[in-house]
Amino acid sequence: MGRSTGYAVMVPLLGLVALLQSTLAPRLAILGIQPDLVLIGVVVVTLVQGSHVGLLWAFTGGIWLDLMGGGPLGGSSLALMAAVLVAGMGHHRFFFQNPLVPFMAGLLAGIAYGVSLLALLWLFQGLGPMDVLLERLVLPAAVYDAALMLLATPWLLTLSGRGGVNA
To answer: What is the second-level CATH architecture of the domain 3-23+32-161?
Structure first.
């Protein structure tokens, strides 16, 4: 897939994933914790293509999330980009062959995303005590997203064998 084709696919694809996150994810909630579908998609792309492409996907996906979710415009993009910087460490071939890498990348990226987004919301909207929010929201969501990354691992391995998704 060429670079321009990748861009043409990336924007509507992330829009669709953000729409699914806004509509379908609440139905997939476990104990009130929803999966972060855009985050999972961005982590998959980052593991396959690296941080440079992942940052572009994170920025675009974050804008979609903010437009659909009503958060501060750019907040989700910044949080997703922080997650990409963490998940990008799993892009190397040596690490990629270990099936625990997608799980750990999802877990650590989920924590980075949750902490970054929570810090932004806390700073601008004055949420409650940070430690309680981390314990009850960020860590369970990161574990949920990491578990879903295990389900995405076969797809991830298929993408990596074909050269992945270009942007």
So the answer is: Orthogonal Bundle (1.10)
